[in-house]
Amino acid sequence: MARITALTDAQAPARSGELLNGVKAKFGKAPNMFRTLAHSPAALNGYLQFSGALAEGVLTAAEREIVALAVGQANQCGYCLSAHTLIGKGAGLSDEAVKSAREGKGTALAALALKLVENRGFLDDDELATARAKGLSDAQILEVIAHVALNTFTNYVNHVAGTDIDFPEVKV
Question: Does a structural domain hold residue 5?
């Protein structure tokens, strides 16, 4: 049960309503996480701006979903795991790739994302060298860090809010 409710269009502050309309135009609906963030137009706008900027980065849609799945599992966020499993499959991830990403395995991106969450953003020289040896560029490393931050934000929002899952549910 939600502890911070997802707002309807009528309940949302005017600026959040505008932002939700943009979400609906892009995705066909505004999922509960966006509607929960709508309580704060600044938080919703910040999420959308950061997410939009990262969508123009070097990581592909599938790679961004791999990071989101690794972070969602590490942070035990059922909402995000459910959302990103569906989105990841839409981006071309197989069931096995989804499972591997959740385990922080299968790709250097997943392993780095998991390591960042586990170490609260700290990497020693050997861990950074390992990411590079596995083929990650500095741009990819920086974008993984950014995606870890963005996904940790949504994980925490969903933990605190108790956001009702409006995707096919995936167990943590």
Answer: no
Quote the tokens at residue 82. 């459910």
pLDDT in tens, 68-90: 999 999 999 999 999 999 999 99
CATH assignment at residue 26: 1.20.5
Alpha-carbon distances, residue 165 vs 17, 59, 81, 117, 168 (angstroms): 21, 26, 10, 23, 8
Split into its structural domains, the chain has a count of 2
Query: Which tens digits make up the pLDDT trace of 150-160?
Result: 999 999 999 99
Is 89 exposed, middle or buried, given 0-12, 13-18 or 19+ CB atoms closer than 10 A? middle
Domain residues for 29?
14-55
Please, which contacts does 7-13 make with residues 24 or more away whose CB atoms are closer than 8 Å? Answer: 7/35, 7/36, 7/38, 7/39, 8/35, 12/38, 13/38, 13/39, 13/41
